[in-house]
């Protein structure tokens, strides 16, 4: 028994070491990756139901790492947050996104951008000023910027999040609660927060065609969301059935592979050209 546990330990330690080393490398290399163009923003369109008009895009970050290859945000955003570097990420994504929105405005298109925030930004009393400065710098009206916060992040300590949420709301930006339905909060509690939009978590939307429970969850979020005056967005819309069911429920906005995958800047432009001409 002693021998086999020794072998288990020998196999385990290098793996832990590798994970730790990789995390350490990612964190130490992150700022330089931002500056050298390894980190890029992709954009996923959001369309109105039932009209399918393009209302906005969600900015989703990607890192093409020279050694590790293409990294999804789930692989590096948590490490970046833990290392206290998330301001640099959010600032970068916000600047890139607002630059796009401004270019569209110059072409007569009103398309908003949604940026994912780290819950850590809600602890930072200076964050709203930086958002205001970015809007001003890019000449973008606040209603064309949406800030997405996860339900679990906001609800972990709503009282603590409230001052920054209020300041952001006062700027006139749109505040969205992301991954809704996965936490333990009630929609009624949301009423006490200055939010404008709920995004139904994709796990429910993906399941609604085959699972009556998921279907019921989606429908009740749409109904209660509307009764609170919120815009309801469904993410993870992958097929016609889901889109049709959401349309029948009165869901306002759809996002998902059915409409488009997240696209690079140039692919998004081509996609928009094909849509809007
Ligand atoms: P999220 O905000 O919930 O973003 C939606 C995720 O669902 C994205 O994954 C998107 O590619 C994926 N998705 C979109 N449509 C579909 C669909 O129809 N089916 C399925 N199965 N998936 C779909 P992604 O890009 O890997 O991002 C993962 C998470 O990383 C995001 O989840 C968000 O929480 C975080 N994230 C991404 N960009 C940023 C960022 O700039 N800052 C911060 N703080 N977090 C970010
Ligand atoms: Ca999001
Ligand atoms: Ca989400
Ligand atoms: Ca998510």
Give structural notes.
With 277 residues, the protein is of the alpha/beta class. It is built from eleven helices and nine strands. It has helices spanning 2-35, 73-82, 86-106, 127-138, 151-156, 158-171, 187-190, 202-207, 212-227, 240-249, 265-276, and strands spanning 39-48, 54-65, 69-71, 112-116, 145-150, 174-180, 197-200, 231-234, 253-254. It has an eight-stranded mixed beta barrel, surrounded by five helices. Helix 3 (86-106) packs parallel to helix 4 (127-138) and helix 4 runs parallel beside helix 6 (158-171). The radius of gyration is 20 Å and the shape is globular.
Count of distinct strands: 9
Please summarize the sheet with the most strands.
8 strands, mixed, barrel
Helix fraction bin: 40-55%
Overall pLDDT, averaged? 92
Strand order, main sheet: write it out. 1-2-4-5-6-7-8-9
Strand content: 15-25%
Ions and ligands: ligand C2E, calcium ion
Could you give the order of the helices and strands?
HEEEHHEHEHHEHEHHEHEH
- The geometry reads as globular
- Spans with pLDDT under 50 lasting ≥5 residues? none
> Please, how many helices?
11
Assign the structural class, choosing from mainly alpha, mainly beta, alpha/beta, alpha+beta, or little secondary structure: alpha/beta
Q: Could you tell me how far the N terminus lies from the C terminus, measured between alpha carbons in angstroms?
A: 71 Å
Radius of gyration: 20 Å
């Amino acid at each position: 028994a002693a021998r086999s546990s020794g072998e288990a330990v020998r196999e385990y330690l290098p793996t832990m070491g590798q994970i730790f080393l990789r995390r350490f490398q990612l964190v130490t290399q992150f700022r330089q990756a931002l500056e050298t163009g390894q980190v890029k923003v992709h954009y996923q369109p959001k369309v109105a139901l039932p009209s399918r008009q393009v209302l906005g895009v969600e900015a989703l970050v990607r890192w093409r790492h020279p050694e590790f290859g293409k990294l999804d945000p789930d692989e590096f955003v948590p490490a970046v947050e833990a290392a206290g570097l998330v301001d640099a990420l959010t600032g970068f994504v916000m600047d890139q996104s607002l630059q796009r929105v401004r270019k569209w405005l110059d072409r007569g298109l009103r398309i908003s951008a949604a940026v994912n925030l780290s819950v850590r930004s809600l602890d930072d009393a200076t964050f709203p000023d930086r958002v205001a400065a970015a809007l001003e710098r890019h000449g973008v009206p606040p209603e064309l910027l949406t800030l997405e916060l996860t339900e679990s992040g906001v609800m972990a300590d709503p009282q603590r999040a409230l001052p920054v949420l209020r300041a952001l709301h006062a700027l006139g930006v749109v505040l969205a609660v992301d991954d809704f339905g996965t936490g333990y909060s009630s929609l009624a509690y949301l009423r006490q927060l200055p939010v404008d939009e709920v995004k139904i978590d994709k796990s429910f939307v993906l399941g609604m065609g085959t699972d009556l429970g998921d279907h019921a969850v989606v429908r009740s979020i749409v109904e209660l969301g509307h009764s609170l005056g919120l815009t309801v967005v469904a993410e993870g819309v992958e097929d016609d059935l889901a889109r049709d069911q959401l349309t029948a429920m009165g869901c306002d906005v759809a996002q998902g592979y059915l409409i488009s995958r997240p696209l690079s800047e140039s692919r998004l432009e081509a996609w928009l050209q094909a849509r809007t001409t």
